[in-house]
Amino acid sequence: MASPHSLPIGVIILRKIWPSCDSISQTTRYKTSVLVLTYLAYMSYHLSRRPLSVVKTILNRNCSQLIPEPDVDTSDPCWCCWKPFDKDNANSLLGFLDSSFLISYAIFMFMSGFIAERCHLRYFLALGMVFSGIFTYLFGLAFYFDIHNIYYFLFVQIFAGACQTTGWPAVVAAMGNWFPKSSRGLIFGLWNSHTNLGNIFGALIAGAFVEYNWGLSFIVPGVIIASVGFLHFLFLVPYPEEVGLAPVDSEIDSGTRAVSGSLEDGQQPRSSSSEPSNGSHRRKTAKRSSSNTDTSEEAPLIDNSAVEFVDKGAVSFLSALKIPGVIEFSLSLFFCKLVSYTFLYWLPKYLDDSTGSSSMESAFLSTPFDIGGAIGAVGAGIVADKTGAPGLTCIFMLFFTIPGLIAYELLGTINYWSNLIFQSILGLLVNGPYALITTAVAADLGNKVTTSNALATVTAIIDGMGSIGAAVGPFIAGIVSQNGWNNVFYMVMISDLISLCFLLRIGAAEWRKLRNTL
């Protein structure tokens, strides 16, 4: 049994008020809790990012459809817009807001992975979520305090982006600590639907308030993510070693397997929990020293005399870059996220302009993209698991994204059903590769280094590079959309093709391997 002092206070209280929970396998209990908590965490992160894409339609809108108050000067065609987004360069300013968040996110993401490897993931994640909620809340306060200064919005966006970087490295590292490599494609594919569900809930919540009080479109998501962060502080157990379990995929004798079960009372090794060493958070992994090893999944770990713990320090940034596949997948993700985030931040505005829908209707009409994205994430994970070829899986989906973009541009806004069908297909094709690279691929690459902890660092490198693309996409879209939305579609088609090209070497190697196994 793990020392009570190493467990979150919520887990300790839960054990006292619900003693029967100890009858459930430790592995099952904690795996389930980590799966659910990290799912809620990143769903909340995306929920809190979504409001700006919805509120854009109110900050800069078509005033000709509205009836003004008697004292309003209607000679100004943008009399109903929120200053400073009432000029001809409104789309550029809104794109600049997107990019200030995303550039900050991209820059701090590289640092975030480095920090996450060196401190406790529970504290890191909980604190990051609370501060993310605060800055989301501050954006909404602009409505109540009648703030129109662009520098205020930029300040909030920059710090919100920095705080949001705490999410991805931490949740992927926590999941990687609990789930073995053999099942990551499917599990991570299902788990990654948190992104799409967060986007959907974020659009629905923001859309519910946007017409009469856009401040609440930010304040409510801000309160939600901060509350979920506190929940993680109370209950998240990110390391199996904290509860007396060996880490998954740890080396045991000549093979690699996950060992579950609890230590006998009084036999908890001192190094089973994560401990700070020389200022960094270093993990200890279990390794059997006896040749008589019980390979049952539920077999308890043997006592101190038979367990040798190997200190695993955090991997350096340059060493992580040298891992085969990290650079190719990072560059591919740059363009994948460019496409995905262009839709995330501009789809409601595109629908508002092209269909004449209200701000609330545009928010709701943009949700099929994320529904399709969730299906695409699961599908990509299943195919990658079955074939062992994540590169080829991404290439296949990226290839068909281009005709999907053409079809949506030509047919997507004809009526409600055409929007639903073509937007869902497009979401499936765009988000499938994005989800696969940021989850299962990143976790697998992070575990290639057997002598160091590399999960959070590799995840931060891959997602950080992708986040630079995510910053570039919405910014360029804001500029080129002023000359027609068709320019935005050309931009994302070219980006999709470049993303595919970066994976050709990996795809060719996977194809040769598949042919040899047939």
TrEMBL record:
<protein>
    <recommendedName>
        <fullName>Sugar phosphate exchanger 3</fullName>
    </recommendedName>
</protein>
<feature type="domain" description="Major facilitator superfamily (MFS) profile">
    <location>
        <begin position="37"/>
        <end position="511"/>
    </location>
</feature>
<feature type="transmembrane region" description="Helical">
    <location>
        <begin position="326"/>
        <end position="347"/>
    </location>
</feature>
<feature type="transmembrane region" description="Helical">
    <location>
        <begin position="488"/>
        <end position="508"/>
    </location>
</feature>
<comment type="similarity">
    <text>Belongs to the major facilitator superfamily. Organophosphate:Pi antiporter (OPA) (TC 2.A.1.4) family.</text>
</comment>
<feature type="transmembrane region" description="Helical">
    <location>
        <begin position="186"/>
        <end position="210"/>
    </location>
</feature>
<dbReference type="Pfam" id="PF07690">
    <property type="entry name" value="MFS_1"/>
</dbReference>
<feature type="region of interest" description="Disordered">
    <location>
        <begin position="257"/>
        <end position="298"/>
    </location>
</feature>
<dbReference type="GO" id="GO:0016020">
    <property type="term" value="C:membrane"/>
</dbReference>
<feature type="transmembrane region" description="Helical">
    <location>
        <begin position="454"/>
        <end position="476"/>
    </location>
</feature>
<feature type="transmembrane region" description="Helical">
    <location>
        <begin position="420"/>
        <end position="442"/>
    </location>
</feature>
<keyword id="KW-0472">Membrane</keyword>
<feature type="transmembrane region" description="Helical">
    <location>
        <begin position="123"/>
        <end position="144"/>
    </location>
</feature>
<feature type="transmembrane region" description="Helical">
    <location>
        <begin position="216"/>
        <end position="237"/>
    </location>
</feature>
<keyword id="KW-0813">Transport</keyword>
<dbReference type="InterPro" id="IPR036259">
    <property type="entry name" value="MFS_trans_sf"/>
</dbReference>
<dbReference type="InterPro" id="IPR011701">
    <property type="entry name" value="MFS"/>
</dbReference>
<keyword id="KW-1133">Transmembrane helix</keyword>
<keyword id="KW-0812">Transmembrane</keyword>
<feature type="transmembrane region" description="Helical">
    <location>
        <begin position="367"/>
        <end position="384"/>
    </location>
</feature>
<keyword id="KW-0762">Sugar transport</keyword>
<feature type="transmembrane region" description="Helical">
    <location>
        <begin position="93"/>
        <end position="116"/>
    </location>
</feature>
<feature type="transmembrane region" description="Helical">
    <location>
        <begin position="150"/>
        <end position="174"/>
    </location>
</feature>
<feature type="transmembrane region" description="Helical">
    <location>
        <begin position="391"/>
        <end position="408"/>
    </location>
</feature>
<dbReference type="InterPro" id="IPR020846">
    <property type="entry name" value="MFS_dom"/>
</dbReference>
<dbReference type="InterPro" id="IPR000849">
    <property type="entry name" value="Sugar_P_transporter"/>
</dbReference>
<dbReference type="GO" id="GO:0022857">
    <property type="term" value="F:transmembrane transporter activity"/>
</dbReference>
